[in-house]
Design brief:
281 residues; alpha/beta; 9 helices; 11 strands; 33% helix; globular
């Protein structure tokens, strides 16, 4: 390589490196803004292609936001009050449809789980029957979340019961039984003075206070649109977390065109290799 080509390569490398941290990058220019009801969203719990928002970053940068954490990870619960100090509402992740073998209460759930590991997530097993013992485990989690001072409980994997999970994994309960189960848990969350965040569906979730949808570069707006719109019409929080996107700004504009400007949005940028936050100005 001659000196001219070497110099050009170095310049391109510097530009590429800087673009992942510089606030003037392609995903930060002309960022769209929602209505006053659209709030910033920070995510510590979900990992897809790149790192989630780290706790120290959230404490420094999140203001008046919905902040989703996994409080059962090591030492995370100790930061709840510091996060709330900036006017944020803290949502706590729990999976109500699976047992996760890295959780402290996995042994308590295991007798009520299917035998076959979920193909999409290593170490997770679908709940086969929502027995009294399963409900007690989930309520114990909710008790701890309330004691830590969280504001919301986000119900992941609440749509796990369908023909596929019944046929492929041997889930024994019906969809109606699963709805009754997570409705009971939401009632308990409300009893503890917190709010319920549904995940990826609002079927049977009329008493929930908000919903989070996960969207993908190759699979957008795949959920029941009327259900999402019904939550917006009821002035409930609707969040979309979108993954692996080269043009986050356009996707947010598209979602606001489909629904309205009350949509809150968080986007995992394939350009920056991190999450891009909106409505945080």
């Amino acid at each position: 390589m001659n000196m001219k080509n070497l110099f050009t390569a170095l310049i391109l490398l510097i530009i590429s490196a800087c673009s992942k941290d510089d606030n003037t990058s392609v995903d930060s220019i002309d960022k769209p803004t929602g209505s006053i009801n659209a709030i910033p969203v920070f995510n510590h719990a979900y990992n897809e292609n790149y790192d989630s928002d780290q706790i120290d970053y959230i404490i420094l940068n999140a203001n008046n936001a919905y902040v989703l954490i996994d409080p059962f990870q090591d030492n995370v619960s100790e930061s709840v009050q510091a996060i709330k100090a900036n006017g944020n509402e803290v949502g706590a992740y729990i999976s109500v449809g699976t047992g996760e073998n890295w959780r402290d209460d996995f042994d308590d759930l295991q007798p009520y789980l299917v035998a076959l590991q979920w193909a999409e997530w290593e170490g997770e097993y679908f709940i086969s029957q929502a027995t009294t013992e399963v409900v007690d485990v989930m309520k114990a989690r909710i008790d701890q979340i309330a004691a830590w001072g969280c504001d919301w409980v986000e119900f992941d994997n609440m749509d796990w019961v369908d023909d596929y999970s019944q046929g492929e994994y041997g889930v024994q309960m019906s969809r109606a039984e699963s709805i009754a189960y997570f409705q009971e848990l939401c009632d308990y969350v409300h009893l503890k003075g917190m709010k319920c965040m549904a995940k990826n569906t609002v079927d049977g979730s009329e008493d929930f206070d908000g919903v989070t949808y996960e969207s993908y570069n190759t699979e957008r707006n795949w959920w029941d649109n009327s259900g999402a719109q019904s939550f917006l019409d009821a002035d409930k929080m609707v969040l979309i977390i979108h993954y692996n996107e080269s043009d986050c700004n356009q996707v947010y504009r598209d979602y606001m065109d489909i629904y309205n400007t009350d949509i809150s949005f968080l986007c995992e940028s394939s350009v920056l290799e991190k999450f891009v936050h909106y409505n945080d100005d």
